[in-house]
Amino acid sequence: MFEDNKNTKLPEHPFFVCHKNIILCIAFRFNRLKYLLRPTMDYQRLHQIFTETGGEFALPLSQFAEKLHRIKAFFFDWDGVFNNGTKGKGFTSVFNEPDSMGTNLLRLGYWLKNNKQLPLTGIITALQNDTAIQFAEREHFNYIFSNFKDKRRAFDYVCKLHNIQPEEVAFFFDDAVDLSVAKICGVRIMLKRTANPLLTEFARENKLFDYLTAHAGGEYGIREACELILGLTSLYDLSVIKRMNFDEEYDTYWNERQSQKTRMFAWDKGAITTVQ
Predict the structure, then answer these.
(1) Is 84 within the bounds of a domain?
(2) Within its chain, how far is the Cα of 121 from the centroid?
(3) Helix-helix angle 221-232:97-113, to 10 degrees
(4) What is the total count of domains within the chain?
(5) Whether the Cβ atoms of residue 234 and residue 39 lie closer than 8 Å to each other
(6) Which string of DSSP letters, residue by residue, matches 166-232?
(7) Is 191 within 8 Å of 216 (Cβ atoms)?
(8) Which domain holds residue 187?
(9) Among the four 17, 154, 164, 170, which has the fewest Cβ within 10 Å?
(10) Residue 17 counted as domain residue
(11) Contacts (Cβ under 8 Å, ≥6 apart) of 128
(12) What's the pLDDT tens digit per position in 113-157?
């Protein structure tokens, strides 16, 4: 196979000399597409990798992968998902860089898969949280919805605004306040917390999650979930290689990502309001 670089040497045949650029272009595209078109990683192996760390699947991986191929948006709860939910006076919350990288690789993978179209991303939180806003702006998520005690209001709003169906949204969550969204969205990732076994059992019995992470919020559960999704969609290796090399294609993705402006909304006095 031809190498993807300018120093590629072709046979000294007149045909190759005349058509060198075309041949190199085809070779480059094929080398890239081999990652996108190759068969999905063996489901049994993926199941083993993630269950051995403590993850739990609620449906066969083939069905999970099928649901993921319909996803156009990724939305996240904040407290208990990107952190353990601890708060105090003068202390709002935190996040960690491995989770941040996980969301970046996830967006890159779907950008590569979907003709270089970024998936929608956003945070829906029940409270006003300065760190959540900082993270959303730093990562150039499309939205942050704050102070939504009924998260279904924010979810319905963004679906209507972008003309997407609930089954086209993946949602990452951890608690009872999130279940109204988990009930209707397409892919449900629940962050494990051993302190609420009855809530976990309720979600399990009512089929409110597709995957229960091995790691809790603040302990890299988001990174775990992002890697699982990329693995199930055969996008993991390509995404990591692109980030590792920071090649021209990754640079294009990065610039597009960084150009996105984060829109902020809040629930105030019975209505959705824009936050400046």
Answers:
(1) yes
(2) 8
(3) 20
(4) 1
(5) yes
(6) GGGEEEEE-SGGGHHHHTTSSEEEEPP-TT-HHHHHHHHHTT--SEE-SS-TTTTHHHHHHHHHHHH
(7) yes
(8) 41-275
(9) 17
(10) no
(11) 146, 147, 266
(12) 999 999 999 999 999 899 999 999 999 999 999 999 999 999 999
